[in-house]
Structure formats: C-alpha cells, structure tokens
Amino acid sequence: MAHERLGVLAIYLNNSRLEELAYFKTLSKEGQKIGIQVEVFTPSDVQGNTVRTISFDATRGRWVRKKGTLPPIIYDRCRYKAAANYRMLQAFRSRHDNLIYLSKPLANKWNMHQTLSKSSSIRPYLPATVRFSTIQELMRFLKKYKLIYVKPKNGTGGRGILRIEQIGPDLYLLQGRNQHRSIIAPYKANERQLAIKLHSLGLSPDYVVQQGIHLTLNDGRVHDYRLLIQKNGQGEWEVTGCAGRIGPHRSITSNLHGGGTAVTQDRLLGYRFTSQEKINAIKAEMSDFAYKLADYLELKFGKLCELGMDIAVDPKGSVWLLEVNPKPSREVFRRIGQHAVYQKAVSRPVEYALWMLKQRGTISEDLTPSIEHN
Q1: What is the pLDDT of residue 84?
Q2: Is residue 288 part of a domain?
Q3: Which of 235, 284, 265, 232 lies closest to 332 in space, CA to CA?
Q4: Mean of the per-residue pLDDT values for the chain?
Q5: CATH number, domain with residue 119
Q6: How many domains does the chain contain in total?
Q7: What is the model's pTM?
Q8: Edge-to-edge order in the sheet of strand 261-264
Q9: In this predicted model, what pLDDT tens digit does every residue of 325-351 receive, in sequence order?
Q10: Distances in whole angstroms, Cα of residue 66 to Cα of each of 22, 57, 325
Q11: Which of 41, 282, 288, 322 is the most exposed place for a label (fewest CB within 10 A)?
Q12: CA distances (Å), origin 354, targets 4, 212, 243, 295, 322
C-alpha cells in the first residue's frame, strides 16, 4: 500500500522529551492500517523546507529519525503552555501557510467566552464570566453567585484555578490548585481576610472570573464530563464518546492529570439522577449541544479536526459548558475500559487527514484505502 504522509506538530518538554509520545505511537499504528505514515516533528526541527522527523517503525518496535521535506498535511498537537511556544507556533504556521492544517488555533478563555456569547443558541449553556479587574469587583461577583471560579485565561489542566464559595453571612471558603497542579490547602476567611489573601495571589486581567456550577457529589468530590467530537473519514462531525471524571478529595478540578478518576457517563449521571428518562434526556442534550458548538466554532475560527468539551450538569439536570479544547486527550476512554471508543478516538484524525488529502486532489481515488473499524 502506498503511504501518504501526515505531519504531527509537537513540542519538547524540558528540551528533550516530546510531549504525548505514547499517543503518537498509537496514532502511527492506526495510520499504518489505512496507508498513512505519521511523522512527528517540532518547529525547531525545521530548516527552510527541510525537516527532521521521527516515525515509528512497527517492525523494529522503535522510533526512527530521518530528514526530508515537510509533510503536506499537519496535525497540530502543540499545547500553548507558554507565550514563547505560542509565538513559535504562530511563526511556523505563517511561514508554511501552503500546508494543509487539520485545525486552527482557538481563542483564550476570555475571548472564547465573548465569541460564544454572540450565539443565541449557545449563550444559555455558558456560565456568567467576566475578566478580572479588581478584588472589589470580584467580591461583588461572588456575592451575586455565591460560588465562583477564578481561572488563568490561558491555563490548561486545572493549573492555577481557584474556587471561592460563600458559606456564611461573612464566611468564605477558598480552595484551588497552584501552577504545578498541586492542591492548595482550603482557607476559610471573612470578607476582609479573603480580600487580603486574594491580593497576595497576584491576580491580573490575565484571569477570568466565572459563575460556579455546583458539581459536588455526596462524598464531597467534584465531577464533570469530557465529551469528544471529531471529524470522521467522510469529513463530518461525529460524537466519538463521553465519559465522566471525578476529582480526588479536596480537589476543585476533576482533570485526570490532577489525580481524577474516570467513570462511564451513565454511571456518573446515575449518582445524581434516578430517572432513566431524565438521564437519557441529559445525554441527548449534551450530544445535540456538541454538534451545535462544533459547527459554530468552525464558522468563527475555520476548519477544525476535533474538540474536547468539558461539560457540567447541575443538580437540576441543566447542561453547562465549562471549557472547550481543540487539542483534547482521549485517555479518559481507555481508563474506563471503552477500548473501541479509544481506538476510534485515535483513528479519526488520520482518517480525516486522508479525507482532506483526497479533497485537495493530492491522492487518487484508487490509492484511497477503505476505512473500517473492527
């Protein structure tokens, strides 16, 4: 079978180890099944139109490095954890705008909220959100909603998130995680003490303040849902799966990297709702919303490949969008034993890449392998 080439744009951790290398290995194996060779590289591996890539050699069971031309289609998996990374990746896209990209970068949390708020069909799913300005404004917001989250507008994985709840007439509970994802010890304080504490945390307009949704289960742990929607081999959006996440004790987030536990969507909904009819209605609303949001984001930002949506369901059964991620992990499905869903979550980007190449006329019909799932 003739091999097409898919470039995976990655980034180094600590200047040596590639982020997500285990995922890229699985991606390579899925690509080989349908005739696509996955070639991983970083912007620093590119000189002019020449690039040093690594490809996984299944016969030898190891990664092989080689030098060649840039692949014609790019799957961007770089996480913008630092401003320098963002600038480097933007410069790469600008220099190589002739390549096919499976997706476009999205906005930060604040700009995303502003964009989504313009849609009358999406706005009802958004928690009230403002940009941080002053401690006094934050306190007014807190008194209005009783529970708020303070998030870095460019943060990922639960880093730097604070949860503040009014638990009495002049008593507040501050919890959170620092920039290293470590849990901050819960802090109870009156309004004056809380203001002093918040001043010491160095909040700035780089943070957003968001209405809190009550996500605490009976055992005190928080929970949410990760829904994955992806383009399939026909270039159409399709919900791949949805799973639940439960945070560890004393954590305000449910992220798996922060120690969260994965459970099935049905099981987690069953912790809060006894009616199967109610559970089915919530699941249907999550799915319908995912298609609506994916279509709207493509309209605003351009072609996308996949989206991870962090969704909350409040005690009444209302669905809320907490966050949307254009470079989602799919680990949650493997953790709950849904191996077929996990395989589909990995194979869809390469199937979509093959479809994109075909649409651009870079491969002929007779070289296009059929795409099947076992």
Answers
A1: 75
A2: yes
A3: 265
A4: 90
A5: 3.30.470.20
A6: 3
A7: 0.90
A8: 261-264, 237-246, 223-231, 306-313, 319-325
A9: 999 999 999 999 999 999 999 999 999
A10: 19, 12, 31
A11: 288
A12: 8, 41, 27, 21, 32
